[in-house]
Specification:
The chain folds into two domains: about 160 residues, no CATH class; about 170 residues, no CATH class. About 20% of the residues lie in helices and about 40% in strands. It contains eight helices and 25 strands. The strands form three sheets. It has a 20-stranded mixed β-sheet that branches. A three-stranded antiparallel β-sheet has the order 14-17-19. Strand 20 and strand 21 form a beta hairpin. The longest helix is centred in the N-terminal third of the chain and has 30 residues. It starts with 5 loop residues before the first helix and ends with a strand.
């Protein structure tokens, strides 16, 4: 049998000891010293801030296996204002070739910081070193201003640079469980047209129904409707200064929508279908849709406001009912209309189906019309706020916070509104105001 010289054997043993014992031990000692270095928190925070263009702070770091790092209590803040954007309980980071895989148990996102979060993503998109990234979280919790919480599950996010050079982030999240589960889709990408250069967001709730308060920044009063839901799709341009929206609000409590500052009482629940909502940097340009309300009750004095300021037409049936019923409530079986709001004004068209022989019926009771559509089109939008908030009847705009919130979300009038000329003719031919 072949045997090595004694000196050769010693050399082989020494080399093996060096390779299999000394070097791994030294590597382990160096890795431990590097991982537990006192400034490791600063290094990770600096690396994540540089890579994703946000301010990051962590309270704990672990490494369960080589190439995988877990960060505890991750706080993400805006790089400029230092406002908190999101909180992640545990963030796992794993490098998979050129891609970065991120995983989290739960992410909390304040609803009031969504625009700031979008600006941070836009800044990240502007960087030339955006890495291909995959992110998964079991739970995404959106927190409202008053402490309301809405949870989505199985959040999947994928960011990459497309062959055309455009950077894109696609986000998918589930709402509900079992057979009722549906998926919400959001796509963020940098484009140069048609809404201007910058970050463009496209969203589609598909079959999912989201709480209406998530749309409070776009639709006035929706944040007050606790039980209302929204489903639809839209497109938002750079910095939110332009976009389009289409969708449906269900289970809208009209009293909650009007708000507590209005003196009028309404007991009714309905749906609001938005066919087209368009806005740009100057404000809302167009709102088209339908309002459908089932049986309910309305304050008679509010009906008087409809007649006085919106020029709706009362019917003989309404006068007969008012004589028979005591109190200040008006009961109705249906309230239905189509509406269009532009810078020229507001146009309402009655569409009650329970009164087939009467065109333009806004409100009906026992198959009789109670209130017909206005005699005029393009009514100044300020009159709508004065109908609901009559605290300053002689003013163009009541100094009430909810009235101001409403008027700021409506198209800006192209001309200073003028009083609608009074008419004594009551027919179905409506006149256009100027």
């Amino acid at each position: 049998m072949f045997s090595l010289h004694e000196k050769t054997q010693r050399r082989v043993c020494r080399a093996a000891f060096l390779i299999f014992c000394v070097l791994p031990t030294l590597w382990t000692v160096v890795w431990i010293a590097h991982f537990y270095r006192p400034w490791r928190y600063d290094d990770w925070q600096r690396e994540l801030s540089h890579r994703f263009h946000v301010r990051v702070s962590v309270t704990g770091i672990e490494s369960p296996r080589p190439g995988v790092t877990k960060l505890a209590q991750v706080e993400i803040a805006d790089l400029r204002s230092n406002q908190s954007l999101a909180t992640i309980e545990t963030l796992q980071i794993e490098h998979q070739g050129s891609r970065i895989a991120l995983g989290a148990e739960q992410v909390e996102l304040p609803i009031g910081q969504i625009r700031a979060f979008a600006r941070s993503i836009e800044t990240c998109f502007a960087a030339t070193d955006l890495p291909p990234t995959d992110f998964h979280a079991k739970h995404l919790v959106i927190v409202g201003a008053d402490g309301k919480r809405f949870e989505l599950t199985n959040l999947r996010l994928r960011g990459e640079v497309r062959k055309t050079g455009e950077k894109q982030i696609q986000l998918l999240a589930d709402v509900g469980q079992g057979e009722s589960k549906s998926t919400v889709k959001v796509v963020l990408e940098n484009q140069s047209a048609p809404l201007g250069a910058g970050l463009v967001a496209k969203f589609d709730t598909q079959q999912a129904k989201l709480p209406a308060w998530l749309m409070a920044g776009a639709i006035p009063g929706s944040g007050r409707c606790a039980e209302a839901t929204f489903s639809g799709k839209g497109l938002v341009g750079p910095s939110g200064n332009s976009g389009k929206l289409q969708g449906r609000f269900s289970q809208v409590d009209l009293k909650q929508w009007i708000g507590p500052l209005s003196p009028y009482r309404v007991k009714a629940v309905g749906s609001l279908q938005l066919e087209r909502v368009e806005w740009d940097a100057d404000g809302v340009k167009l709102v088209q849709g339908q309002l459908r309300v089932g049986a309910g009750q309305i304050d008679r004095s509010l009906m008087t406001q409809f007649e006085k300021l919106l020029h709706c037409v009362p019917t003989s049936a309404a006068r007969d009912v008012s004589k028979k019923v005591s109190g200040n409530w008006q009961t109705f079986d249906e309230l239905s209309c189509n509406f269009e709001i532009t810078s020229r004004g507001m146009t309402l068209t009655g569409t009650c189906e329970t009164v087939p022989n009467q065109t333009g019926c806004l409100m009906a009771f026992e198959r009789q019309p109670l209130l017909l559509q206005p005699e005029y089109t393009e009514i100044p939008t300020s009159r709508l706020t004065r109908v609901l908030f009559p605290q300053a009847d002689s003013a163009w705009l009541p100094l009430v916070s909810q009235a101001i919130e409403m008027i700021q979300s409506l198209p800006i009038p192209s001309l200073t509104p003028k009083p609608v000329p009074k008419t004594t003719t009551r027919n179905d031919t409506r006149k256009k105001t100027r």
